[in-house]
Design goal:
Blueprint: E1 2-13, E2 16-27, E3 31-35, H1 42-49, E4 57-62, E5 66-70, H2 82-87, H3 100-113, E6 118-122, H4 130-142, E7 146-150, H5 154-160, E8 163-168, E9 171-176, H6 179-219, H7 230-260, E10 287-298, E11 301-312, E12 316-320, H8 327-335, E13 341-343, E14 349-352, H9 365-370, H10 377-386, H11 403-415, E15 421-425, H12 433-444, E16 449-453, H13 457-463, E17 466-471, E18 474-479, H14 482-489, H15 497-519, H16 527-547
Parallel strand pairs: 3-7, 3-8, 5-6, 6-7, 12-16, 12-17, 14-15, 15-16
Antiparallel strand pairs: 1-2, 1-4, 8-9, 10-11, 10-13, 17-18
């Protein structure tokens, strides 16, 4: 069933055409992920589609109710039902003192509370921890309406989307499937473009060779020999002229075929970014970072208590955990070499933080990156072009860049210096999807030690070979990748038969008590709550009995 349609949409910012769409139709069953580079116009497009922003040309029609979720805008209502507040694990009353993640969950709960047929969401997982992202994913997966979401979280787009709309140079291109399927289709498009370009070059080269051979053949036609009589000479000359004319026509036709070949532009071939730490800068200690008897608290809040950890040489460690558990605190303690923390001699630490203090706003992109770089300018410019800073873009002053662009410059500067230990705090925030792929590739090929905090599951899966967690004021390291860690974490507890029998006994007694209170309720009893508990206990009993 049709929910939205638009036609001949154009939107300008000054004299720059930001959005230029011939037509688009969305249906109630569509779950769309909008992707594109920073500044491509994704938010502008969503605002136009939701009729919150009028296009300069064209029209948009909506055929149902919708909700809009943005990081920057407050909710329409300051109170939601206790049911949806509970499902999103948030207070039912809006408070400005809420964390960023709590505010986003409140706004999404408000969407469900209003029974909207479509949800438009702009970066709903930004600055939210992994647990919060998974909660939002699960609720949106249960949602029966349509969805249009801007997100750089590829795992999020994989789980929720059945269409991907790519925004590039104001135009849109629609792909069926989730993000991984979109990525596969893009790879096939690239392979096809390479094949067609090669075919074009081969055919052009063949026709040019035909032209050259014909010209040479024309030159080889002999002139009339002097010994010939007049009649013979006249016949010979006429034959030569006819042959030359025929060859000239063939040359002309061949040139015309060259001119009418469909020109194929040379596809961009991405060069692999391999970051090598020179042998003279390598660390040969077995342990790069060691923590012993680490304690930290903020007033009454304890973060670490006699915690210990080791990070081995060459390890790529992802530090994960909920917001507020102490990830950034631990990284700063390592950088500052707090009491109990030792870093191997010879370590030269590169630190990426959210304040991006490593870049100089008064210098250009290229000047920033080349300062103290161990690589030549050519390599630096290749890396910057992969991050979508191309040609003259590298001469822009950092002060003129967007937040996402500054993040990319900070990354380039850190990765091209002679650091042999990288510590990164939430490095994927504000990066577009295409730049994420480049950074992942660079860090996978990085031949030294890496420690980073992140909530981006795809990024963690692609880069990390160790998982560090903070639990009950202690620091633990799992030797394995993210998938192995999740499999281990999700293993069912090995309950003995005796333990299960004890649980069944307790639940049976509770079930008898609930049935008694439902049969003869007192004035204080909440019958709805008792009924919900009855079904919950009954289902748990069935599960346990099935396992015995």
């Amino acid at each position: 069933m049709l929910f939205l349609e638009c036609n001949n949409i154009k939107k300008y910012f000054g004299d720059r055409l930001i959005i230029d769409i011939e037509s688009l139709r969305l249906y109630f069953e569509d779950r769309v992920g909008l992707v594109g580079v920073n500044g491509a116009g994704k938010t502008t497009l969503v605002n136009i589609l939701s009729r919150r922003l009028e296009p300069d040309e064209g029209w948009v029609k909506l055929y149902g109710s919708y909700s809009y979720v943005s990081q920057l805008e407050p909710p329409k209502s300051k109170r939601i039902s206790s049911e949806w507040a509970s499902k999103f694990k948030v207070s039912s009353i809006w408070r400005e003192s809420m964390s960023g993640g709590e505010k986003t969950r409140f706004k999404l709960a408000e969407c469900f509370n209003s029974d909207s047929l479509m949800i438009f969401a702009d970066e709903p997982t930004s600055n939210i921890d992994m647990e919060g992202i998974e909660l939002i994913e699960n609720r949106l997966a249960e949602y029966q309406g349509g969805l249009v979401v801007i997100s750089h979280d590829r795992s999020f787009l994989d789980k929720l989307c059945n269409k991907i709309i790519e925004v590039e140079n104001g135009k849109i291109k629609i792909y069926t499937g989730n993000y991984s399927e979109y990525s596969d289709q893009k790879a096939k498009e690239s392979q096809r473009a390479q094949f067609e370009y090669k075919q074009y070059l081969n055919e052009k080269k063949r026709l040019e060779q035909v032209t050259a051979d014909l010209k040479q053949k024309t030159k080889s036609i002999k002139k009339t020999p002097a010994r010939m009589g007049n009649s013979e000479a006249r016949l010979h000359k006429m034959g030569a002229q006819k042959a030359k004319a025929s060859l000239a026509r063939t040359v002309k036709n061949t040139r015309a075929r060259i001119e009418h070949l469909e020109v194929k532009e040379k596809p961009l071939q991405q060069k692999v970014i391999k970051l090598d730490v020179a042998d003279s800068k390598k660390i040969y200690s077995k342990v790069i970072i060691e923590g012993r008897n680490i304690s930290k608290n903020f007033n009454a809040k304890v973060i670490f208590e006699d915690a210990e950890f080791n990070i081995d040489n060459g390890a790529k460690v992802a530090l994960i955990g909920p917001n507020g558990c102490g990830k950034s605190t631990l990284l700063k303690m390592i950088i500052n070499r707090d009491a109990g923390i030792e870093i191997a001699p010879g370590a030269k630490v590169g630190y990426f933080s959210q304040d991006m203090s490593i870049v100089d706003e008064n210098l250009t992109i290229l000047e920033n990156v080349l300062a103290d770089s161990i690589y030549q300018e050519t390599f630096a410019r290749i890396f910057l072009s992969r991050l979508l800073f191309k040609r003259e873009d590298v001469f822009k002053k950092v002060s003129a860049l967007s937040g996402g662009e500054r993040v990319k410059v900070s990354f380039a500067k850190i990765l091209l210096k002679d650091f042999n230990l990288l510590i990164l705090d939430e490095p994927t925030n504000y990066l577009d999807i295409y730049s994420l792929d480049v950074i992942e590739e660079a860090l996978r090929n990085y031949n030294s030690t890496l420690l980073f905090a992140s909530h981006d599951r795809r990024f963690i899966s692609a880069v990390a070979d160790r998982i560090m967690t903070i639990d009950n004021h202690q620091i633990k390291i799992f030797n394995g990748n993210f998938e192995d860690y999740l499999a281990k974490r999700n293993q069912a507890p090995d309950n003995s038969l005796e333990d299960m029998k004890k649980q069944i006994f307790v639940l049976q007694n509770r079930l008898s008590e609930i049935i008694g209170r439902l049969s003869m309720p007192s004035k204080k009893d909440d019958l709805q709550a008792l009924d919900r508990e009855y079904h919950m206990v009954l289902n748990e009993l069935k599960r346990l009995k099935a396992g015995c």
